[in-house]
Amino acid sequence: MSGTDYTTTPYLALYKPIAGMDVGNWGLHWNANADVLDSALQAHSDSLADGPFLPLAGNKTVTGPVVFNGALTGTAFGTDIGKILGPLINYQGSNLPGLHLAKRLVLDLATTTPSDFAVLQINRTTTFTSSASSLNSVLRLSNTVGTNDGTKNWGFAATQTSAGNQGGQNVGAFIQATRSTGGTDFVLGMVSDARDTTGLVSSAGKQVVGFELDVECNRADNGVNGTAIGGVGIRKGLNIVAMRYNGADTTQTEVSHGILLSASSPSDLTVVDAYTNFQSVLGFAINTQVRNVIDTRGAITPTGSGNPVSAVTMTAGHVIDFNGGASLTSAPGNYLQYRGGKLYYIVGGVDKLSIDASGNVRAAGTITGSVAP
Fold first, then answer.
1. Is there a domain that residue 323 lies in?
2. How far apart are CA 317 and CA 332, in angstroms?
C-alpha cells in the first residue's frame, strides 16, 4: 500500500516504488506511469502527427536552447504593446519575409553609454561576382503618397537636438562613400534627386528643388574665426572642404572643382544634353540682403604654381552685364565683352568703347582727361 510499498508524485500521482518493496506490483505501477504520461502529453496536441508537447502556463524560465521546427502562431504574436514582434509574413506575395505593423514601431535604448555607437546597426558584406546592372542598398525607404493626401510627407527625417557643452559634435546626418585599396569604381558621397515626371511646364505645379540648405539663427555672426577675412564669422550655409586623406602624404593634393555644374543626357551621364540648360548659376531672390556675392580675398595660388589666382575666368564672347533686363532670359543691357582681341563696353547692343591688346582706346564719344566723371 501507499506509504509502505510506494509513494506518488505530487502532480500526476505517478507511482514511485520503494526500494525492496512493492513486490509483485512494481511492474504494473511503472506501466501505469507510462500510460498517464502518454495521455498527459498527447492531450495538448492537435493530432498524433504534431507530436506531444508540454503546456507552459504562468511564469516559466527556460535555461537552455529551444528549437521550433514549424511556424509559430498564436495570440501572443503581433505588433501591439506586450506582444512578441511578428510573425513574419509573405510580403505582398513576393516570397520575402515582412512585418505588417499595426502602428509605429519605436526603438529606444533603456540605458545609454558613451560607447553605444548606434541604436540600430545593419551590416551587409558582399562576396559575389556580378555586373553593374543591379542597384543594391543597405536600407531602402519607399513612401507612396496618395492623390488626396494633404499632409507633409518626408521620406527620411532625422532630428538631432543637443544641449551639450562638453566640446562634443552634433551632426544631423553623416553620409560617406569610401574607395578602399584596390578599388577603381565610381564613388559618390551622396545623390539628391528631385524629379518631375509629369512632362509639364513648371507652372502646372509647385517648386522642384534638388537640394535645400537652411541655416536658422539670430543676431550677429561675431564668433571668432581665424580662417575668415576679418577674423569673425562661424555661420555657413554651405562649407565645402578639400583635404588629404593621408596626412603624412605631402605631395600636393588637387581637387578639380569645388562646385561643378553640368547638363547630362538621361541615357549617358558622360554626354552633354543639348536640350537642358540653367537659366542662372547663382541667383538671389528679390530683396535678398548680401554684402559680398563672391569674396576671393582669402584665396592664394596653389603651391608650385607661378600663376596668380584668377578670380573670374571667362571664355571670349561672354559678358559682364551691368544693366540686365527684368527676366532671366532678358538680353544684356550695358555690359563688357571681350571678342576679337578687344575689350568692349556696349550699351543697348552698340559698341561704345574698345581697348585692344596694344592698349589703343577707341570711343564712340569724347574721351576727356583731367575731368571728374
1. yes
2. 13
What radius of gyration, in Å, describes the C-alpha atoms of the chain? 39
> 145-179: b or e for each residue (b if 16 or more CB lie within 10 Å)?
eeeeeeeeeeeeeeeeeeeeeeeeeeeeeeeeeee
User: Quick check: pTM over 0.70?
Assistant: yes
292, 309 Cβ separation under 8 angstroms: no
37 Cβ contact partners less than 8 Å away, ≥ 6 residues apart: 12, 14
Contact 9, 16 (CB under 8 A): yes
Residue at 178 is within a domain? no
Compute the C-alpha angle 227/253/239, nearest 5°: 40
Residue-number span of the structural domain to which 40 is assigned = 1-48
Strand 6-8 and strand 15-17: the pairing is antiparallel
pLDDT tens digit string along 29-44? 989 999 888 887 776 5
Flag whether pLDDT at 53 surpasses 70: no
173 HSE (CA, 13 A, CB side)? 7
The model's pLDDT over 208-240, given as tens digits with 9 standing for 90+, comes to 999 999 999 999 999 999 999 999 999 999 999
For every residue of 228-248, which 3-state class applies, written as one string?
A: CCCCECCCCCCCCCCCCCCCC
Number of domains in the chain: 2
C-alpha span between 56 and 53 (Å, rounded): 9
32 in a structural domain: yes
The C-alpha atoms of residue 37 and residue 21 are separated, in whole angstroms, by 23
Q: Is the dihedral of CA 12, 13, 19, 25 positive or negative?
A: negative
Q: Which of 27, 48, 69 is the last residue of a domain?
A: 48
pLDDT of residue 215: 96
Over residues 310-338, mean pLDDT: 94
Among candidate residues 11, 32, 48, the one where a domain is terminated: 48
In the prediction, which pLDDT does 64 show? 76
SS3 content of the chain, % helix, strand, coil (to 5): 5, 10, 80
- Closest to 105 in 3D by CA, of 137, 90, 83: 83
Instruction: Tell me, yes or no, whether 28 lies in a domain.
Output: yes
